[in-house]
Write a structure and sequence with these properties.
It contains 1 helix and 10 strands; from the N terminus they run αββββββββββ. It is mainly beta and about 190 residues long. The chain has one domain: Calycin beta-barrel core domain (Lipocalin, Beta Barrel). A 10-stranded antiparallel β-barrel has the order 1-2-3-4-5-6-7-8-9-10. β9 and β10 form a beta hairpin. The longest helix is centred in the first third of the chain and has 18 residues. The radius of gyration is 19 Å and the shape is globular. The protein binds protoporphyrin IX containing FE (HEM).
């Protein structure tokens, strides 16, 4: 009876541990392959503006989070809300992977039925970290809006993170869609 109780209690605490976030109590050391991307780690918040030839311009607040668990990739989560009425806008989640010297890959899933597989260059010059990522593949669910290419830039200058996104979609060539400026919050 006593051992059953112990087993149940162990199962409960295992369940708690398995589903808790972060997965481990102690943050493991950063994987050496992440040295170039490491400055992105943490939480970021700020505002952005968006436009596209087919939609009315809009403003948004953005939260980004880059994490790691000791393996050679960063976890990536983004949430945005409308500056007009605080309704949720775009969100996405994925992984940023170092891919050899000066290269990185991004896989990202979006609730709009879009998945992107991007790759590109990572450069550090004059203390500014710059990523330029271009889609190799844009996967669309049956009901998703047509997007054929995406280009993203991420520029980290001190504690300010600048992002831009251009896309080819709904019959338009590669055209600016988003720009944001975020500051570190954690
Ligand atoms: C900060 C992130 C983003 C925000 C705040 C945002 C916001 C918006 C808004 C407000 C619209 C117009 C209204 C609507 O159709 O919902 C829109 C349209 C659109 N967005 Fe974004 N978006 C974001 C990221 C993205 C990304 C990552 C993609 C694709 C890779 C994307 C693709 C599109 C497309 C295809 C349209 C529709 C254009 C049309 O139907 O004419 N957006 N976005």
């Amino acid at each position: 009876m006593r051992s059953e109780t112990r087993a149940v209690s162990r199962a409960r605490s295992t369940r708690r541990r398995r589903y808790a976030f972060p997965v481990t109590d102690a943050t493991p050391p950063l994987h050496p392959d992440l040295v170039a991307l490491g400055p992105l780690l943490g939480a970021w918040r700020g505002n952005g503006s968006g436009s596209y030839p087919t939609v009315a311009p809009f403003g948004y607040t953005e939260h980004l989070y880059f994490g790691h668990d000791g393996r050679p990739f960063l976890t990536y989560d983004q949430r945005t809300r409308s500056l007009d009425d605080d309704r949720p806008l775009h969100a996405e989640t994925g992984y940023l992977r170092p891919a050899g010297p000066g290269r990185a890959e991004l896989v990202v899933a979006q609730p709009t039925g879009v998945v992107e597989v991007d790759d590109g260059d990572v450069q550090m010059s004059d203390g500014v970290l710059r990523l330029v990522l271009r889609s190799r593949v844009v996967g669309l669910t049956t009901s998703a809006t047509e997007i054929t290419a995406v280009e993203r830039t991420v520029l980290l200058d001190g504690d300010v993170l600048h992002t831009t996104l251009a896309m080819a979609a709904v019959g338009q060539p590669l055209t600016h869609h988003l720009a944001s400026e975020l500051r570190r919050t954690g």
